[in-house]
Q: What sequence folds into this?
């Protein structure tokens, strides 16, 4: 346990969207209603009220990086320690908010300062690489409202994780991670009305979104503090090995190694995160979809690094199945990491998901 990072126990009526649960919430059964580290929305707060929950444990720092200050705290058990990864969450959220400030400055026309990006991102990367199991938790910390900013920081961290798994040197790991972090910097040149639109994009608006790799490259092409590999990753992170990507339809032999990593990190985090127009999927389901539906588009060695990470880091985790049941991952087969052996907590039934194609892991619970 880590000292100095505390959580508050507050009444349900004091909750606000953006609060983060600091412990599982249980009703009258042994199955949690919501898991530790869930980011609360108005809808989730109403669900808790529907289950007649009276009080919950909440992180002091909200998902947007602000301090949660409820009007009424419960005197009993006001503070308690939370899991040792909480200081990482605080550092991560701070990085997201600092990136958001830089992003807004780019929107207003300020030149991209690579030194400031390195300053806010690299200390977080250094810490993250010592506790790389967090790679499968990052999507839990994202929010719909600040998705673009979470996506930048998380994509950078995931890129660093992949580069480390591929045995890159420490310098190359930092460069690959920085490439992932900056890959969407060109989004700052897309009209705000499109970025903040909550309904479906028109064909013209979608085409404008697809211009962001080119916008990003123009922002950095003369920046002497960024390597050529980072610059190439910014314009190539939506390219695919088979030439099906954009903007140049470049194929595998023309793609920089950082670009291949950033492409996978970008796709993985986007699919595992909740966005305004799309619900999030579990790491298990996303990696299975990428492996099966996007065969030939992504670098297999990079994908294998994430698949191997599932086996390494998610054995023993509680998960929510697509049928609504909660289970524990008890064994992950190396050749089929997205279809593990699980034990259903309610019935203690052992279930082999590799033989149950109708079921999938809907959510990894913290």
A:
């Amino acid at each position: 346990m880590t000292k100095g990072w505390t959580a508050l126990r507050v009444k349900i009526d004091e909750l606000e969207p953006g609060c983060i649960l600091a412990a599982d919430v249980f009703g009258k059964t042994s199955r949690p209603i919501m898991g530790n580290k869930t980011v609360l929305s108005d809808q989730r707060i109403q669900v808790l009220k529907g289950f007649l929950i009276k009080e919950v444990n909440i992180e002091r720092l909200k998902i947007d990086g602000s301090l949660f200050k409820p009007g009424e705290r419960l005197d009993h058990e006001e503070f308690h320690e939370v899991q040792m990864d909480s200081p990482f969450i605080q550092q991560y959220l701070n990085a997201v908010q600092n990136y958001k400030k830089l992003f807004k400055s780019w929107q207003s026309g300020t030149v991209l300062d690579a030194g400031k990006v390195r300053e806010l991102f690299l200390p977080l990367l250094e810490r993250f690489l010592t506790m790389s199991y967090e790679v499968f938790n990052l999507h839990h910390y994202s929010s719909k409202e600040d998705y673009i900013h979470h996506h930048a920081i998380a994509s950078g961290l995931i890129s660093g994780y992949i580069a480390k798994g591929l045995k890159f040197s420490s310098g190359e790991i930092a460069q690959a991670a920085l490439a992932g972090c900056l890959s969407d910097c060109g989004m700052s040149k897309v009209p705000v009305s499109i970025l903040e639109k909550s309904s479906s994009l028109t064909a013209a608006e979608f085409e404008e979104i697809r211009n962001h790799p080119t916008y990003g490259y123009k922002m950095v092409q003369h920046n002497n503090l960024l390597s050529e590999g980072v610059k190439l990753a910014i314009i190539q992170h939506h390219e695919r090995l088979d030439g099906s990507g954009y903007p140049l339809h470049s194929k595998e032999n023309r793609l920089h190694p950082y670009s291949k990593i950033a492409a996978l990190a970008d796709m993985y985090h986007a699919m595992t995160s909740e966005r305004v127009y799309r619900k999030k999927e579990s790491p298990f389901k996303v990696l299975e979809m990428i492996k099966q539906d996007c065969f030939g588009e992504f670098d297999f060695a990079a994908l294998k690094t994430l698949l191997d990470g599932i086996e390494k880091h998610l054995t023993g985790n509680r998960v929510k199945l697509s049928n609504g049941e909660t289970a524990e991952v008890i064994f992950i087969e190396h050749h089929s990491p997205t279809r593990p052996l699980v034990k259903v907590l309610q019935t203690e039934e052992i279930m082999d998901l590799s033989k149950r194609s109708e079921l999938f892991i809907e959510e990894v619970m913290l």
Q: What stands out?
A: Residues 6-81 form a domain with the Molybdopterin biosynthesis moea protein, domain 2 fold (CATH 3.90.105.10). The beta strands are 6-11, 25-26, 32-34, 55-59, 79-81, 318-321, 326-331, 341-344, 350-352, 361-365. The CA atoms of residues 236 and 255 lie 7 Å apart. The chain has three domains: 6-81, 86-280, 312-365.
